[in-house]
Amino acid sequence: MDDLLREFLTETNESLDVVDNQLVRFEQEPNNAKILDNIFRLVHTIKGTCGFLGLPRLEALAHAAETLMGKFRDGMPVTGEAVTLILTTIDRIKDILAQLEATEAEPEGSDADLIGQLELMVERGEQAAAAPQAPSEAAEDTAGYQVLERPLRPGEVSLDELERAFRETPADVPQPAVAPPEAAAQPPAPQPPAPQPAVLEKPKPAAKPAAKAQDSRGERKPAAEGTSGEGDRVANQSIRVNVDTLEHLMTMVSELVLTRNQLLEISRRHEENEFKVPLQRLSNVTAELQEGVMKTRMQPIGNAWQKLPRIVRDLSGELGKQIELEMHGADTELDRQVLDLIKDPLTHMVRNSADHGLETPEERARCGKPEQGTIRLSAYHEGGHIIICIADNGRGLNTERIKAKAIANGLATESDIERMTEAQIHKFIFAPGFSTAAAVTSVSGRGVGMDVVRTNIDQIGGTIDVKSVAGEGSSVTVKIPLTLAIVSALIVEAAGERFAIPQLAVVELVRARANSDHRIERIKDTPVLRLRNKLLPLMHLNKLLKIDDGTSSDPENGFIVVTQVGSQTFGIVVDGVFHTEEIVVKPMSTKLRHIGMFSGNTILGDGAVIMIIDPNGIAQALGTSVAAQHEIADENAAMRAGNAEQLTSLLVFRAGSSQPKAVPLALITRLEEIAVDKIELSNGRHMVQYRDKLMPLVQMEGVSIGTSGVQPILVFVDDGRAMGLVVDEIVDIVEEKLHIEVTSNRDGVLGSAVIKGQATEVIDVGHFLPMAFADWFSRHEMHPAASSQSVLLVDDSAFFRNMLAPVLKAAGYRVRLATNAQEGLNALRSGQDFDAVLTDIEMPDMNGFEFAETIRSDQRLNAMPIIALSSMVSPAAIERGRQAGFHDYVAKFDRPGLIAALKEQTGGIDRAA
Amino acid sequence: MMNQKPETIEGAMTEYVTAMIGDQLFGLPIARVQDVFMPERLTRVPLAPDEVAGVLNLRGRIVTAIDMRARLGLPKAETDKPPMAVGVDLRGESYGLLIDSIGEVMKLPDDGREDNPVNLDPRMARMASGVHRLDGQLMVVLDVDRVLEIASDKLAA
Fold this sequence. Notes:
Chain A is an alpha+beta fold. Helix content of chain A is 42%, strand content 24%. In chain A, strands 10-14-15-13-12-11 form a six-stranded mixed sheet. Chain A has a six-stranded mixed sheet with strand order 27-19-20-30-29-28, with helices on one face. A six-stranded mixed sheet of chain A has the order 21-25-26-24-23-22.
């Protein structure tokens, strides 16, 4: 492409963006002559340059717009309609420019429609202005001001303008070289037309340099804004550099970093040598150079915001809302590459705020809010990250609608949602295909939603969060890394190959060893790690990458890189961990880009090429569901551990029959495979020596212990006593909503639930425990009943929570779990309705008696039936319980007693039935 | 390159870098060849197509090594002799075509190039743009662009 043309395109596009913004500002402050001046000059320059380059369509359009703006300057009232028209014209100019860029020729077509409208507007303005002012005007301008009978043709200059130009030009002529800065430094003159435009118009060939000087000044202008003199001097110190040049510079610095790393690597191997000192120096210089070059790639985030004022203006017209856009921290800088990637998400979120967030003026007035809504954008640095916040003072997220939509989309069940906090519900907006706009509008709700935004942000290693207060507004916070080009990475080894894992995603490293707390356990073929009471899914990197050579991995040992992607946490098992290194991310060959596990490759200090693992790819490979769900589940970890209503990890196994059976994983302490010859028969019962103790084994109905090989056993431990349940085969571990659909009268079976599409019997661990130890607790028939009554169960022991929740559910109660008295109180005070409270007595911090007393002393809660659950049932304890205000006192293991007590206290289901 | 066409009429010559892959002699137009190098420290890429032997660092550039034997459907080399690589560029990316050994550069008349024999192995035919008859052997002219049509078509399949 012609150099001149290319330069014209770059400059004009920049100018037009500025015009967009300035016009929106101008509309708000129609009396600000300075803004008008700016706009006028920019459009004028475009017109002049187009004329020079022989682009008649552009020239005609720019001219028509300029004429209208000239009228503004002459005092014609600024109407929204007129500004819209000019903005439309600018859009047309942009379209033509885009085609010009593609084809290097001005496209065919006519702009008569727009030009006609512009002229009409000018005429209307003239008439309006002429009517009252005609006499005085005529008197003033006898010298030659003529109101033309026809509008000016493209390229023509109105006589008065020329006149004025002649009058003013001489002042500048003596020192044309310094004219541009000086002109900019001029105070907003009472005679606003800058001299240059007029000068430009005359001898066309000479116009180009002047136009260029102006152009560059024009685009600097917004940065300089008020402090014109100072600003210009600063601006003069910057130069325009081609992006390619910068990219090349960046590449070269990356090479330098690599070479430096290489030298350091060599130096590391030779203890004492004379290179050490200069190498250190080289290293420092390189680091500084790297930083310096990175800086050149930095751009103010304001560049990504540039189009927003215009968008918001258009939206407010389209939606009939009054919207103010506030922007803070526009000069916050971030990497060009990152900037490009967040532009669209930002625009989308601002649109969302305008469309869904803010109310119509009437609605706002009704709520007692100012009619004008505000969207506030802010950006700032925080520890190697940029935080961008998009907030509005609108109605906030519609929790009810999100709930309904989440249920409709099958993201959660009604009962799940009941338990969630508002914040958790709000996170559903990031789930794929989630849009709460009741109707699809042209503004947002085009099926792409926040999930797309989230995906984009995820791609650049960022995070996103939403906060909302009903009636007050909502805010979305995005956290993104400063740069993508050079990242810190952990170098790991799997099957003899090295890989880099970006540090950003790495949470911690765990060394797993057999016989230690951190032991890789296996559930069928799925490796897991118990880490701080949470079950961490593990993936062997060599299996994931299908490079398992069979020689390496010791199944129970290894390093676990605990990795977090969004809200999902998982462990990547590797054979070795080396060190961290600043790596230069190089794009992968197009022949390899389809491999989702890698995000790029890099050259290490020793010169070897290694692949960079993409944690997102691994997360996908783990095949886990909607991240939002996980987030919620994770936040709720304590609750989730026992809550049968939410996602429950279930162990699926076979015992006795071909129908699969399941038991909540949290109930199981360990899974063992015990060699059959280790199983002893003592006193008619099967026993096995387990961890220096005798562990009784209980066989499920139909299960027989084989004669050789190994027998899978589920180990349950409580209070130091262990019991093994003998099963035939462990099938799988699944995460499911445990929903017992059919209750059972059969001993040992709570009921049936559909797990992974298959009817599965959920076994009742409580049935088998006393079979091992007669005193564990006694078992009687259960009486399932249908009810939708809800019960709050407070118990600090996960074991009992896990045991009782299914029992209560099977009896038809909805169960909310709390791990301590305080959590219980919070639940009670959250406004949720409970029909009864079941609480343990021995609990840390606040015991059951204190808990009951607190409830009794709360006016709103004092009628709440409270049932104590305790293993210490003595007359004294029962008496103490009465005093504390318990309605009933039930032994923990007396489940029929418990159900009976519940029925009695919750208003007699029996009576109703 | 620019004026190759008119020259063709008067019996233009094209220079080829020749290479042995398996028992066959191949020729690559010299204009497409960047360099010839010994591939060192090849890093294999898990999950990559079979034809991609790996990636390596060539003077600070990451080069994707293409296993020409796999590409041509030939069995793996039996010797331990290290392969050589012919460096070529495609749309700004560097590739190294792994070959058994490098031969001399030959200048051959364009009108001596014959169309692929119809019974040529279809795999090879897809990447060949003609055959030159030399003394005692045939040289298959490789079309570099088509040699590098790898992953994308594989994905589509």
